[in-house]
């Protein structure tokens, strides 16, 4: 059977695919034409979030296509409707990246609050003159209120870190999480109240029609002026232009972003602002976790191609 792997992925995943006829495309995201051509005749595709897996792609693969194994927890890059029409199983890699992504969210939260990027730029530019009693002051993190938007596996892992910093936990989402309420004293609030009460906001919701631009100009108006927003989910959950305005006008204190609306493009205004920390979508980028994600994606693909139930189908 033919398997297309759309990017160079960790060896741990590739090793599991040795019984297939495997084509691995480039380290960088393939161009659309290259991707469509390579899809032809594939029984299984192991892809990443940089590939748009839509009807056109599935038709380019043809009738042989049985499974699209996305090496990510998010799967907004895959058209589930088109997959369903064609009987293609779509899988993702949940859980294995929860702790690593939570580390990244907390890294951004601390960095944005304590102005790590600005400080680094000053030191590297040779502009640091002396210790300063009022230099690079930012809000304390410890003991503050953290609002989680979407308390799933990653959100909960962030909460566990926040408890170590003595933070009070607020959350919003589709449903109440009674266990988290008991275990962490997390308090459920409607989004509007969460925006008003939180000192820090961290987004952990998938990108859907419902969550696209969930946070925009109106929402920034409701936040505290010392608020810090962290996004490690998907860029389009936040209206990036509205965020840039909110940061520029100091409507909110700072932001930490790992994801963007048009990756790898970043809103030009954000690039010029000091009060935003920018990382290039590396939430799950630890050595161990990327091995696990590649392994899980390969296991999902292998299961479907050998007629078994995949571990993590998103369209059962
Ligand atoms: C990364 O963004 C993922 O969804 O796994």
What does this protein structure show overall?
It is a single chain. The chain is an alpha/beta fold and 316 residues long. It has two domains: 112 residues, NAD(P)-binding Rossmann-like Domain (Rossmann fold, 3-Layer(aba) Sandwich), CATH 3.40.50; 181 residues, NAD(P)-binding Rossmann-like Domain (Rossmann fold), CATH 3.40.50. Helices cover 37% and strands 15% of the residues. The protein is built from 13 helices and twelve strands. The strands form two sheets. Strands 8-7-6-9-10-11-12 form a seven-stranded parallel beta sheet, with helices on both faces. The mean pLDDT is 98. Bound molecules: glyoxylic acid.
Summarize the SSE layout with pairings.
Blueprint: E1 2-5, H1 11-15, E2 21-24, H2 32-39, E3 44-47, H3 55-61, E4 67-70, H4 80-85, E5 89-91, H5 98-113, H6 116-124, E6 145-149, H7 153-164, E7 168-172, H8 178-184, E8 187-188, H9 191-197, E9 200-203, H10 217-222, E10 228-231, H11 240-248, E11 254-257, H12 268-272, E12 276-278, H13 287-305
Parallel strand pairs: 1-2, 1-3, 3-4, 4-5, 6-7, 6-9, 7-8, 9-10, 10-11, 11-12
The structure holds glyoxylic acid.
Label this structure with key terms.
316 residues, alpha/beta, Rossmann fold, 12 strands, 37% helix, binds glyoxylic acid
The Rg value, from CA coordinates, equals: 21 Å
Please report the first level of CATH classification, the CATH class of the largest domain.
Alpha Beta
Q: Biggest β-sheet: count, sense, barrel?
A: 7 strands, parallel
CATH superfamily of the largest domain: NAD(P)-binding Rossmann-like Domain
Distance between the termini: 22 Å
The helix content, as a percent range, equals 25-40%
Question: How many alpha or pi helices?
Answer: 13
Instruction: Please indicate the percent range of residues in DSSP E strands (runs of 2 or more).
Output: 5-15%
SSE run: EHEHEHEHEHHEHEHEHEHEHEHEH
